[in-house]
Design brief:
Blueprint: H1 2-52, H2 64-121, H3 124-129
Helix pairs in contact: 1-2
Length: 161
């Protein structure tokens, strides 16, 4: 019985940090999602600005349109690279969360296998003799006279003190 309790205690201890670690990973992914949404909005504005420009704006050398066009293209490239970086970070965080869960599952499987081996090693006579639903009271009620606690409701006879 002591080994069962130790298995349960070890399992509970191993799971205590799991929810906080997963929450940390998920919160970081949420933050990156929010930043990605903001960045997507900025990319949309940059793209709209590029589409509104005159078709020849990028081909005129040295003019203000060319400077604006080149600035928008450079901004778009930076935003695109940042978006890719955020996406990579989210994938990495998801992989770490999966790794954490997988490692915990492996530990649980190993502990369960050890526990099952230990339970299988218990002699069957001892296991058969133990009945957790058995009443600990004797037929004498534990006081030496009268019916036992479990026996007092077996008949419709009035109880005798």
């Amino acid at each position: 019985m002591a080994s069962i309790i130790s298995y349960l205690e070890n399992y509970v201890e191993s799971t205590l940090g799991l929810p906080s670690d997963l929450s940390r990973f998920l919160n970081m992914i949420r933050v990156l999602d929010a930043r990605t949404a903001e960045l997507m909005e900025a990319i949309k504005h940059t793209t709209d600005a590029l589409c509104r420009m005159e078709p020849a704006a990028g081909s005129r050398k040295g003019g203000p349109d060319e400077q604006e066009y080149l600035g928008l293209v450079a901004s778009f490239k930076r935003q695109e690279a940042l978006l890719y970086q955020f996406s990579e970070e989210k994938v990495t965080l998801a992989q770490h969360a999966l790794e954490l869960i997988t490692n915990h599952q492996r530990e649980l499987d190993a502990t369960t296998a050890q526990f099952e081996e230990e339970v299988a090693a218990i002699p069957t006579a001892a296991a058969d003799a133990y009945n957790p639903f058995e009443q600990p009271y004797s037929a004498g009620g534990g006081r030496g006279k009268g019916k036992g606690f479990a026996d007092q409701w077996d008949s419709l006879e009035p109880l005798t003190p």
